[in-house]
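stuck on this chain:
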Amino acid sequence: MKIFCTSLKSFLCFLFLQCGCLFSTAQVNFSTSTFKLELDNMGQVTSLKDLIGGHEYLYPDTSSVLLRLKTNGHWELPSAMHFDRSRQILAFIFPSQIKIEVTAKTREGYVTFEITKAAPMAKIDRILWGSFATTISKTIGEIVGVVRNDDFAIGIQALNIKTSGGFPFNDEGYDVSRGSAALKKKWGSVLQAYSINRAVPRQISVWNGSFQNMPVVALTRETVLGSKIALFGVPEKSALDAIGKIELAEGLPHPMFNGDWIKQSPESGRSYIISNFNEDEVDEMVGHTRRAGLMSLYHEGPFNTWGTYEFNPRYFPRGKEGVKEAVKKVHAAGLHFGVHTLTNFINTNDPYVSPIPDGRLVKTGSSTLLKSIDAASRQIVVASPTYFSDVQNNTLRTIQIGNELIRYGAVSTAAPYTLSDCQRGAFKTLATAHDQGSEVSKLLDHPYEVFFPSIDMQNEIAKNLALIFNETGIDHLDFDGHEGGLASGQGDYGIEAFSKTFFDWTDHFVVNGTSNSKHFYWHINTYCNWGEPWYGGFRESMQAYRIANQALFARNYMPNMMGWYLMTSTTSLAEMEWMLARAAGYHAGFAMVLRVNDARKNPNRDELLDAIREWETARRTGAFSLEQRELLKDPKNEFHLERVNEREWLLFPFHVSQSHTHERRELQPGEPTYTTWNFINSDEAQPLQFTMEIKGKEGGIVDPVITLDQFAEIQLPVSLGPDERLVLDGTTARIYDPKGKQRSSLMLDNVPVLSKGNHSIKFKTAYSTEESSILVEIFFKTRGSGEIVKKN
């Protein structure tokens, strides 16, 4: 009888699935006041419609489906979908006989879809929401998951971290790009999100292929059950507001600062100072930060170790008490106090590693000990060399056996597979004897000479960091090294998990940036500030990359930021204003690395800090017109800004001449070696300024001489090689190396004044070798009349 009832039940189920009895099989609509999503009985999307303008945005010539899944290595589309209207449940049946129920809810302004049943779960590898194909192509927010044109925006939002915005390009679920929650297509765009069934143990390629066939532990609760998204369509100008409402209604992170959502806060995108001050230097650096009008004083290396986050006694000899006092001083000045770390990286001297290594340190793989060893053995025989022979991603060459860490020099290529030249008791662990059959595990490391935690241990580390912030009041952090979340084998989920745990455990607002843009983290993030200063001067250090990022930020409702810059003891006002003009043009903040000794040694320090303050104040108060900002963006243009009063400034443009060139040539005996140029100064009388650039591959110039109008001579006792340049601004001639770093300077007396009108300029030089094949290129620069700009 029981068998009969079960069979009858299955038969009736088959009937309503095939015939639509009791369940709806017609088109299913989910509509808000502005947007309609329509599905057919195969789960295919048949409409993405703007209900205000009446425009259909579904791209019809490709498959758009609400939900698909991957099983047994293949993607499957639903073979049928049925809708229980009374319960608002969509029932999907797939060719592999997997059944998934999705609960739909229409909210004010958006629709949510959540997987509430799925069976058999063991057969489901991953699911994909979408892709939803649209005809919108103007602005594609790949991180935030919003596509928009001038009239309308359509967006997708992952509503928990088990749901990743984007496409699962690999088994770990890591997107190496900036984002793929939305992607541009030749015909428009797609929106998508996914979840991976992480509840089963896996052996996969990890960290974008760096670690092959790595065993990844199961996360028992992280199936696709509970995967949830929101879809919305609104007028373009309302898109950001719509995301804010979704955050509040769905319990997503919604950071507030001074009463404003951080995505719409006037404090968003502000600049800050990074420094290496100690307890006794806090007041000094607070003074510089306030003088520059910046928002935060951020310490570049406050921790002695990462993992447990003990403060470095070099900077804070009184530990947390010294930090608390520093934070109070910084907050009293109206500033944030920031600290730098590398997300989940663990130093080798941290208590998680030494003297007893935590068992949760991530392993790339394991083998077994074929022969027992004593505490002095330097040869270790293992059953397999697989994980130990990786030389590409094996900086520390460290294995763990029990509570001992051991470093090894090499692995034999034939059996018996032997780890040789072993250093026992590495990182101050205890060398001990180990029995045959003991597990020998290879630790996952990094060129920064660190180890990494499992997801469970990572959550503990993120909580450690949050509790330190709570105790001390620190309120600024960059999740630098955010990609360390990949080490556990959980892809973007691992990256998102660290920042979410930290956010959940902190009890106050924390300004935060990242080294990796991720869809869910977007809700937590304050800014992204990409661009490093270590490669050269202001002009040379990743400037094209910094500028390219600005469009990315604009597409994704993120504040514009120009990255980090390094103010040294030799930084000039011209260099600083060149950078500040770019920042003003893109309405972008930045980080200024200003170390204590450089601040003390730079004779122009206060002038530079004042320039930062005035440019930043003008930028943040909307003083520059759109036309001015376009000119400020151009790296060929230079400007000077002077304060008139609290509401007004004078913006002076510099006019740069065309290129004037001098090259070595064969001359008759006694023939003059100089080159003569004509130059017209259309601006008011001012001291001569120019940039001299050396082009070529071999040789150089020595002791060049410039003569103005046949009488005013500037002798420059310098040597310049290929790709170096000399800049004269004021009374200082500065020599820059090929990477844009100032290598020397020269004070000049009696720099001639360039009057308004026509001038004759002669140039001559000696050469470093007889074979020098060098071209000298000179650009003359004059300052034009100032234009009033006002606070808006």
User: Anything to note?
Assistant: The CA atoms of residues 77 and 746 lie 72 Å apart. The longest helix spans residues 2-19.
